[in-house]
Amino acid sequence: MLSIIQEPGLTYWLLLSTVLFSIGLYGFFTRTNAIGILISVELMLNAAAISFVSFNNFAVTGDLDGQIMTMFIIAVAAAEVVIGMAIFIQIFSKQRHLNVTKMNELSR
Amino acid sequence: MGILSILVFLPFVLAVIVLLTPNSKAHLYKWICAIGTGLHLVLTAVMTYMYYQSYAVDRLAAKTSLHTKLYLVEQWSWFKAYDIEYFIGVDGMSVAMMILTSIIIFTGVLASWNLEHRTKEFLAFLLVLVTGVFGVFVSFDLFLFFVFYEVAVLPMYLLIGVWGTGKKEYSAMKLTLMLMAGSALLLAGILAIYTEGGSFNLLELGHHKFPMEMQNWVYPFLFLGFGVLGALFPFHTWSPDGHASAPTAVSMLHAGVLMKLGGYGILRVAMYLFPEGAIQWGMTFLVLATINVVYGSFAAVKQKDLKYFTAYSSVSHCGFIIFGLATLNFVAIKGAVIQMFSHGIMTGLFFSLIGMVYGRTKTRDIPSMGGLMKVMPWLGVSFYIGGLASLGLPSLSGFVAESHIFVGGFMGNPWTSKLTMQALTALATMSIVVTAVYVLRGLAQVFQGEITNPKFELLTDATVTEKLVTGILIFTLFFVGIFPSLMIDLIEGSIWPFVNRF
Amino acid sequence: MNTYGFFLTNIWLILLIPLLSFIIVGLFIGPKNKKLAGIFATTSIFVCAALAYGATFEYLSLFPLGAEHPVIVPWSVQWMPYLENLTATLGIMVDPLSLLLMMIITTVSSMVHLYSIGYMHGDPGYSRFFTVLNLFTLSMLGLVVAPNILQMFVFWELVGASSFFLIGFYYTKASAVAASKKAFIVTRFADLGFLLGILILSYEAYHLFSLEAFAHLSSYNAFDFNFLNHPEVINALSTADGALLTFALVLLFIGAAGKSAMFPLHIWLPDAMEGPTPVSALIHAATMVVAGVYLVGRLFPLFGSSEVALNVVTYVGAFTCVFAAVIACTQNDIKRVLAFSTLSQLGYMMLSLGVASPLHKLGYLASNFHLMTHAFFKALLFLGAGSIIHAVHSNDIWQMGGLRKKLPVTHITFLMATIAIAGIPPFSGFYSKDEILAAALVNNPIVFIIGLFVAALTAFYMFRIYFLSFCGEAKSDGAKQAKESSISMLIPLIFLSVLSVVSGWFPFEKFFLSEALVHNTPSWLPIVASGSGLLGVLLAYLFYFKKTTYANSVKNGFGPLHTVIQNKFYIDAVYLFVVHKIIFRFIAAPIAWIDRHIVDATMDKTAYVTKESGLVLKKIQTGNIHTYTMMFLLGGLVLFLLLLGVGF
């Protein structure tokens, strides 16, 4: 039991990653608020980052490709959130709500 | 820059000139086109002369050759990566078709003399369309052929959709979609040929022997693809609506020339490259063509609209072309090519006359017209001459074509049962009676008897332009009818290779 | 090599002159100057007549009477080459038969042209009339001089077209329009048979060229009459497939039957009387209708090889002969009586051909002899009828009467023609009819009896007209005020009446054959023949000369039968029924319906299906982010699984 607490092992990290990803996916599909969807996307991205780092640590030794990848993910996620937020702000100023189920036509 | 390229692109240049002419000089459009197409007609005559000069040497050799010999060739590389060339030339058949198109576009432009609505665009599109047609008749590179084919079909949508009458959007859409479907089949076939044969050059491909399994499926693809344009049953239904809704010059061009592209393509591409496939599939298409002939003529009996009447008549006569081709007999194929020319002129005459009558009476409904001969003798007599040509009266070109097809059909070919062939030919021959019935009934209803509508008393007869149009077309009908040996001599040499390949 | 004189070397003028005249009168003179048009057209036909007689004279000087009379082709050009040995040439064939017809056609046509100058005077379509009349003459001449069957077909069709325009000359009259259509369509239907016959025959003949045995005939074409009538060819064709040959011949006969109005294709001829009377004289008496007889005569050696074909010819001819004669007895329109009379006489000509054979040529000779005499007296009868109608302004014989005094020239000429047709010597009709009866007696006694019976009927109904029109009292105002016609109308009448008498004395046999025929005719034949004619005259006299009470009581006695006969046995109604109710309603209409609602609907439905499926598929584009992401996921999963599957 202590071995598990001390050394979780790849499988468990991947399990974490999967759970996180699923939560993010579920959130993506069920949230009606655009920002909620953005948060879910962040969750999924982070889940992927965790799995990258886990693999880098347990399966691939020698180079740090996985961790570099995580750096990329964080940067890209940040950029994407910025752009997403900018768009949502514009949309909100027009529609006064951010309910994605109501935003299904290109023009009114 | 040879004479053929000039002939092909002259209409395009004319179209550009018309588009560039300022709107303030609108009356000039017609004159530019008329003079331009007239010039084109003269150049075509020159080209024919040049052709005869080169052909005279090969006349005797033509009888036994297996490959088409081309004259006045121009050949330049276009897309080197795919072996696509700008390869044009003529043989006898092409020359005949060029003459036909030249005459029809000239008379078509004259027939549109009174068009007021957006004349500039109309003439421009018409001329672009005709560029495509000329291109098809001289292309011997399959890709180039297809490009020109599409150029010939696409402007129809706009021409009918904008300048037509009646259910024009519906007819234009139906026509274009069905013809595109045919082109799709064609493209598939052409690509298959390229993959198998390694080249787009028709003459080179002629030397290549295509495997039988491939011929078995590509031949019908090509035949049906071209057949849609040639009004093969049961893909002919775009034709009645299309012709009925189209404006006069467009109908003349379409029924007169475009529908011949179908027959021309069948002969030039499908039969040239796949002789064994033609033999295999001969009977199927022969039966379809017979249905075309008989069915079209019976359907025409019951029509009440003058344009539908002529359209079904065209379906029946174009059926003759396909019939002649499907018999795989030298005399009949000769007849099919002559029929392409003859019917083209005849139907051009018909549609131009209908346009003239419609322009005056404002109705196409046959039962409501009557007694028009008294007020429009020139138009009436021209209509009758057209009608007599349609039913194959000797001394008019229709007889030359139809008699060739009948004689050839009776002779049959070595690969089909004589009895079947002769029975089908006999069936097709019966159409001369049905044609007589509907032509005479229709014309009698419109032109003879007493004038039914008092408004008709005020109508005028043909104007000078109209007399010129009908005069040229009637003259051609009589010329080919009375001196058939000229036409036969022109095309005979080019047909031997096709027959020798079987 | 015989050198041909002027007329024979330039024989092509006989076709060129009417052609030029047609074009010039039609396009240039006609619209401007009516009178000149008429004179120009008439003159050109007179010139043709001169050419025809000149050619005959030259031919006879080359090949005198009693010597061999070969077929020569002084002029021909290649016209339509189908294949080697299968080429249609345009040419002129000169032999006794074609010369005879050339003379007949040009003579009658020139008389009709001359007559029309007076008859059609004042008609708005005067120039048009002469133009088409010239075209008709050209077509007819082209037909009879044709050296091959295809040229004959070409001009056959042209004859049909010109007669269409002539019958429908008064195109504002609905009945004339209907009549011209009917004529054209019925003859077109017959032409279908003709064409099929030509196709079969030429196809069979063409194949002979590939045989060694026929190499010496390789300069001919399969269409040439000289080839088709060649004894070797006939032999080869009949031994190879006699049934097919008979079939082809019967088809050809159908074509002939249409043009010559044999039963049951006779229906167009009575209605064709809607045309102007000169047209009836030219077309329906003398020329167009004999084209069928000419065709059978031209191909006589070929027909001779098939018993069945000859029997068909005989019996159809005989039936038409008696059928038409019976109907003619009941008609009240003078032109209709003459029309049915023509039908009956044509029946004589056909049956005469049928009972003959290459060994017994009497029937062949008799037929052509009767063709000639009939052309003259029938044309005369029609022109005379025209003169009467012109004077009385009515076609109805019961409206006439007492015209003997008022129209003297018409009366005498008409009487002479009537005597001729009744077959009373020494007028021409007697000689020709006698020969026909002689031929029939030898070969087919039943037909002989029919012929004899019809001879009596002919005399009866012709004299019925005569007595009702010219004798007795005038029965209407028109008849009372009748005046004789103008001189331009009378000259043709007089000329033709002279011919009606003298043409019987023409040395016919010597003209056609080289050795004299052996005549086995019993000496009682001429007496019986003319006797039956006289019997008919007597009956007519009794019935119609003074009072018509006998006639009326006989008519009432026959009652309904008379009505049936008067309505021409209702054959026309049958035809109309078949055409309109059956062909139009059950073939043409359904086809038009099928095309619109089934074939076309298929295309429409295809488009509809495409559109509908498009509408369904459109639902995928919800605009909703969640849906799209779900698609991503599912798609990604599917691809992943596929890759898994492929990988393993």
Query: What's the β-strand tally of chain A?
Result: 0
Q: What's the CATH class label of chain A? A: Mainly Alpha
Largest sheet of chain C: 2 strands, antiparallel
Topology order of chain A in helix (H) and strand (E) letters: HHHH
Number of helices of chain A: 4
Strand neighbour order, sheet with most strands of chain C = 1-2
Structure class of chain C = mainly alpha
CATH overall fold name of chain A: Helix Hairpins
- If you average the pLDDT of chain A, what whole number results? 88
Strand content of chain A: under 5%
Oligomerization status of the protein chains: heterotrimer
Secondary structure layout:
The complex is a heterotrimer of chains A (108), B (502) and C (648).
Chain A: H1 2-6, H2 9-30, H3 34-58, H4 65-95
Helix pairs in contact in A: 2-3, 3-4
Chain B: H1 3-20, H2 28-58, E1 71-79, E2 84-90, H3 92-111, H4 119-138, H5 142-153, H6 155-163, H7 168-197, H8 202-207, H9 212-229, H10 238-245, H11 248-273, H12 275-301, H13 306-326, H14 330-361, H15 377-390, H16 397-411, H17 418-447, H18 464-482, H19 484-500
Antiparallel strand pairs in B: 1-2
Helix pairs in contact in B: 1-2, 1-4, 2-3, 3-4, 3-11, 3-14, 3-18, 3-19, 4-5, 4-6, 4-11, 5-7, 6-7, 7-9, 7-10, 9-11, 9-12, 10-11, 10-13, 11-13, 11-14, 12-13, 12-17, 13-14, 13-16, 14-15, 14-16, 14-18, 14-19, 15-17, 15-18, 16-17, 16-18, 18-19
Chain C: H1 6-9, H2 13-32, H3 34-62, E1 72-83, E2 86-94, H4 96-119, H5 126-144, H6 149-167, H7 174-208, H8 225-228, H9 231-240, H10 242-259, H11 268-271, H12 277-286, H13 290-298, H14 300-304, H15 307-328, H16 334-354, H17 362-392, H18 403-406, H19 408-422, H20 428-443, H21 445-470, H22 477-480, H23 487-502, H24 508-512, H25 524-544, H26 549-558, H27 560-566, H28 571-618, H29 625-647
Antiparallel strand pairs in C: 1-2
Helix pairs in contact in C: 2-3, 2-5, 3-4, 3-5, 4-5, 4-12, 4-17, 4-23, 5-6, 6-7, 7-10, 9-10, 10-13, 10-15, 12-17, 13-16, 13-17, 15-16, 15-21, 16-17, 16-20, 16-21, 17-19, 17-20, 17-23, 19-21, 19-23, 20-21, 20-25, 21-25
